[in-house]
């Protein structure tokens, strides 16, 4: 029963945002406040290597579909609050409360919304795929399933993947580069569809039309009820969420390398296996098993403690926005360990070249030179 209940934590997180908008005033910070609560819980959360056991998979799916309803409730509550009044007086309190509202939307658009969208886009039925597109539009990327399913899962850990962050890259240029490349891949898919169907780029029969129609329908609906400012803030939150999503992408494969076309091995992704990370991410952080078999449901994924591990997701997310901290305390030490303990000889050669391009030390050469130096000293 515990396994069935654990994922309702994601529902509670969104409900905190809904309640904050209903209550108004300073409570409008409640949604983003869950970030700090979860980060604190994650800091004391133990590694969780247990298997999920569901006798009734449809019952296990209930919080996934509930989430889609709650996200609509979140934006309905925001629109209502903007129309009814914020519940504070004065310029400074108003600005601060609105900042809290946008921050709450951005955070909840990303977590737990992105993990739910990710799980649903991997399903085969039309309802799940359709809902994935709708809630992906909430973070301004309705057709993320196209580059994710048909490029990322084929080319991950290589330069051919738009989501790949090479060594030495900081999160800020990566967020823009990743956004640009994923949109370019959507354009390629749109042109291929046009060639097959004869539909124009902006035809309702093509991807591009629905990409922007879904994106703009949300701020339009919010703005019609809550007013122009509500609509504008919704659009701001959507776009900000898009870049925050790319920051999360930045972490997941950072600096890892793989020989193009080679089979997926346990060492080809980073993993975050605390109880909080696995739960709030719908097992997306049980990462390598998802890449080994992308068709597995979230509850079927097997954690691999022997695969490369990163610190908890919240530590990594915050550190990524502080590049010196990210490189010194997380990226370089973990990648050095990966190169020395996990990488194949071919991958070590790719990693060595990646380190050279990044201006990083050649720790593989240092290790190879150590025995020779010891023998010379003897």
TrEMBL record:
Domain Fatty acid desaturase: 97-301
One Gene Ontology cellular component: plasma membrane
A GO term, aspect molecular function: monooxygenase activity
Keyword Cell wall biogenesis/degradation belongs to the record: no
Protein location: Cell inner membrane
Cleaved signal peptide residues: none
Keyword Chloroplast attributed: no
InterPro entries reported for this sequence: AlkB/XylM (IPR033885), FA_desaturase_dom (IPR005804)
Similarity comment: family membership: Belongs to the fatty acid desaturase type 1 family. AlkB subfamily.
UniProt-recorded name of the protein: Fatty acid desaturase domain-containing protein
Primary localization: membrane
Keywords from the UniProt entry: Cell inner membrane, Cell membrane, Iron, Membrane, Metal-binding, Monooxygenase, Oxidoreductase, Transmembrane, Transmembrane helix
Gene Ontology biological process terms in this record: lipid metabolic process
Transmembrane segments: 12-41, 62-80, 92-114, 207-226
Membrane topology: Multi-pass membrane protein
Organism: Immundisolibacter cernigliae
């Amino acid at each position: 029963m515990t396994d069935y209940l654990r994922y309702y934590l994601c529902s509670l997180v969104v409900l905190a945002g809904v309640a904050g908008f209903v209550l108004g005033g300073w409570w409008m910070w409640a949604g983003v406040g869950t970030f700090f609560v979860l980060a604190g819980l994650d800091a004391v959360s133990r590694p969780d290597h247990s298997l999920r056991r569901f006798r009734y998979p449809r019952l296990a799916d209930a919080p996934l579909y509930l989430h889609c309803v709650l996200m609509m409730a979140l934006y309905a509550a925001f629109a209502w609050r903007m129309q009814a009044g914020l519940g504070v007086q004065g310029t400074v309190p108003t600005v601060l409360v609105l900042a809290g509202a946008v921050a709450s939307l951005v955070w909840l658009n990303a977590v737990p919304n992105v993990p739910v969208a990710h799980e649903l886009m991997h399903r085969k039925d039309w309802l799940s795929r359709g809902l994935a597109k709708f809630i992906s539009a909430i973070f301004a990327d309705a057709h993320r399933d196209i580059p994710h399913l048909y490029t990322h899962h084929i080319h991950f850990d290589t330069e051919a993947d738009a989501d790949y962050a090479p060594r030495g890259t900081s999160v800020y240029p990566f967020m823009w580069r990743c956004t640009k490349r994923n949109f370019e891949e959507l354009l390629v898919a749109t042109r291929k569809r046009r060639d097959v169907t004869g539909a124009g780029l902006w035809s309702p029969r093509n991807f591009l039309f629905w990409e922007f129609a879904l994106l703009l329908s949300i701020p339009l609906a919010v703005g019609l009820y809550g007013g122009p400012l509500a609509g504008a803030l919704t659009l701001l939150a959507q776009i900000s969420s898009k870049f925050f999503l790319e920051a999360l992408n930045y972490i997941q494969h950072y600096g890892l390398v793989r020989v193009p076309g080679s089979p997926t091995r346990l060492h080809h992704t980073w993993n975050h296996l605390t109880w909080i990370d696995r739960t709030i991410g719908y097992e997306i952080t049980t990462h390598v098993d998802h890449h080994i078999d992308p068709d597995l449901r979230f509850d079927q994924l097997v954690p691999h403690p022997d695969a490369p591990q990163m610190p908890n997701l919240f530590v990594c997310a915050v550190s990524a926005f502080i590049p010196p901290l990210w490189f010194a305390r997380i990226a370089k030490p973990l990648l050095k360990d990966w190169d020395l303990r996990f990488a194949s000889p071919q991958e070590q050669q790719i990693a060595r070249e990646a380190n050279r391009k990044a201006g990083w030390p050649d720790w593989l050469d240092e290790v190879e030179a150590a025995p020779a130096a010891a023998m010379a000293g003897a």
